[in-house]
Amino acid sequence: MRRERRLHGLLDPENRRTHGRELALKFDDKGLITAVVVDDATDEVLMVAWMNDEAVKQTLATRKATFYSRSRRKMWVKARSPATCRR
Description:
- By secondary structure, this protein is α+β, with helices and mostly antiparallel strands.
- The chain is built from two helices and five strands, in the order βαββαββ.
- The chain has one domain: Roll (Ubiquitin-like (UB roll)), CATH 3.10.20.
- It has helices at 13-19, 53-62; strands spanning 5-6, 32-39, 45-52, 66-69, 74-77.
- The strands form two sheets. Strands 1-2-3 form a three-stranded antiparallel β-sheet.
- The chain is globular, with a radius of gyration of 13 Å.
């Protein structure tokens, strides 16, 4: 069984093209947005993290979920386990 985890709509350029929407995100006064990672099959919330503008751009460019750590003040990429790497 193939399980895919993604940021809904964010990593799917075909979805954006089909619906003709530009990506318009509202960042807070600290330049951050809340990112909710959801299991594509079950809609189960897997994690909640923060993204800044650079993390969003890196996520779109690399197709790897990149987040911003408020405590460490740097970006990080979510490590993937072998079970989630199947394509």
